[in-house]
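User: Structure tokens for this complex, please. No commentary.
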Amino acid sequence: MSRIVGIDLGTTNSLVAYVDEKTGLPRVIPDRDGHALLPSIVSFANEGVLVGAAARRQLVRRPESTVYSVKRLMGRSYEDVKEELCYFPFKVLPCEGIVKIQIGSREVTPPEVSAIVLKSLKERAEAHFGETIEKAVVTVPAYFNDSQRQATKDAGRIAGLDVVRILNEPTAASLAYGLQRIREGVVAVYDLGGGTFDISILRVKDGVFEVLATNGNTHLGGDDFDRALVVWLLDDIREKHGVYLGRDLEAMQELRLAAEAAKIRLSADERTALTIPFDAFTYHREITRSELERLIERLVDSTVAPCRMALADAGLAPADIDEVVLVGGSTRVPLVRRRVQELFGKTPHSQLNPDEVVALGAAVQAHILAGGITNMLLLDVTPLSLGIETLGGIVSVLIPRNTTIPTNARELFTTSVDGQRVVDMHVVQGERELAKDCRSLARFELSGVDPMPAGMPKIEVVFLIDANGILQVTATELRTGKAAAIEVKPTYGLSDADVERMVEESFAYAEADVEARLLIETRNEADTVITHVERALAQGSHLVAADERRAIVEALDALRRARDGSDRDLIREATTAMNHATEHLAEIMMDAALKGALASRRAGEIMEK
Amino acid sequence: MDHFEVFGLPRRLGIDAAELQRKFYELSRRGHPDFHQGAPPERQAEILEASARLNAAYRALRDPIARIEYLVRLEEGRDTREGATVKPKAPPELLEEMFEIQEALQDAQASNEPGGLAPGARETLGARRERLLARYGEEEARLCGPAERAGVIVAFKESLAVRAYLRTVIDDIDEAVGEAREGYVSHRRH
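Assistant:
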């Protein structure tokens, strides 16, 4: 059997891993520079597409064409996500079905963006092994619904990968831990990532990892912590400097990145400082861990209810949990750890790197599927109840949540009018009584029913949820035993034809070649320098003599001209000359800023006393 | 093949939970699709079907109440829950109490009081809820207690029905009172 890799397609970062045949242990594959994490960011440029760290560097420079956190949009409709669109600098179009993102004159869907990230990981793995990689296990949040899972599978297809298994992230983590750390018993996996939260309760025994219950929120994660901090900073900036930056795309990206970095520092430090140079002023602010905790407390607390529901569904009390495992970068936040410890009354495990553990588990599952491991088995569940809409819009549940998968349910359908040849059904997922409150998955149309009096035809429909947690539907006319023709209209998904077309089009989004990428990066650096110089001239040109000012303006013009051309060496020379011309001004301004910062810090200390 | 036959067990109420789990893990190890990825497509479809059947059987048998419901259906020769010819009835005195409570709930909710309930209604409903919960426990004890197959099916059916009615009305009260309190029974044990 050909090689299968494990991929963690994360909101913030993605990774690829495999099981080392010699040691039997999973390992992450780093990129050429030794980095394991690939930022899940894609930047669209005329020269080609940038992925990962290169795309991350475009966030501030090209906010409208740089897409991040696209996992929050996977398998979703415009209605689902419109509330949070104000936080995204790229444009999401209002439309029926799945959301589309507008990049210049093009439209791309979330699976296409994810496909670009997957392709980059595929190529990384191919470079590592020196062979073509065609199969992968890709992880998703356990609480992902059918549409979100299907969207992830589609992303794989567009990237040229056969996704042999969609694996739940918390269970993947338990496999990675199970290989080396967990003894037998009942395990709770608390997984808080960049954009999603999952809780899974498992029983581990004799190498079998049986999921008892799962719950979560596919719209809660570190991104929301950053947003809470950004909103607070926006208020603070308005108060201090009298400007509202909420509609300035570039400023918002600077703020978001600064907030994220400050949040990360506050996991280790009690206090930290933010310094962000804007066009008209430089913003400086100290923030303490307890201030951050006040901002995110409500978000962290909202993970407790899903944990309690998962426990109730598993028929267990917190005291029945033997081990607690932390997964996802956001579990580094001390407040999160405290809440988990309070809830379960025991110190959680976090020995394995929470950023890597899901990818490692995906590699373990890939190895199981490839036949390399035979003493471990994962039995997962479907996170949401599956039902069909009946008369009056009421949902009739066919497969309750937390049923072990694969699982199936059979239902008999008939006609209600004489001679009726087509029978419709509406399949939904969720826990609410009314279909309109649940997630619409698809409408199925059974056609070719022989014309008969109403109620005579007997069509048996089998709803099967496979080991990926994805629904498959088949129908048989019981009298004839013939398979009935069934047409699926996914409510928030891509049709096969869509996916085929996207596979074709994906070549248009090929990653920029080395030459093009270097040109983009050089231009990018020049743009950053130009912005900084413009800012410096606006704020501090009075600090230097007239001829020095003239030299700076001339160097700036030269750099602008070079930047618009495509001679990389020329741009780099002009950038160096620019830096040289502004060295003195930069020094003077740095001194002034430091004085200002110290003054405000002193003021802050006095205020606290 | 019925759920008992899947595990090679005799058709009976008393099943050792640990033994059932051991068999479930053993059969999963043998037949799970994960271990048959290289099989031809037709064989894979069979494996998937068998795996779904095993999971359904385990689900139906591991929970004592679900096991009784399933056994009652088997004894009556029905395949699905919907196929019941005669819906089991709850005793008249219970039905009467149910109607009363439903009415009280509607009145309480229509009262437009701040907090949603009329003064005193919360206490009255709470007390009723406690009584119903106690009765629920009794019925469950009757279902799970030692019993022999033949004569108890009728009694079981009645208990299952009473228990289901009680569950519904307790849930309604919970919704009105606005909190799921101790004694919460998750829907897994329907």
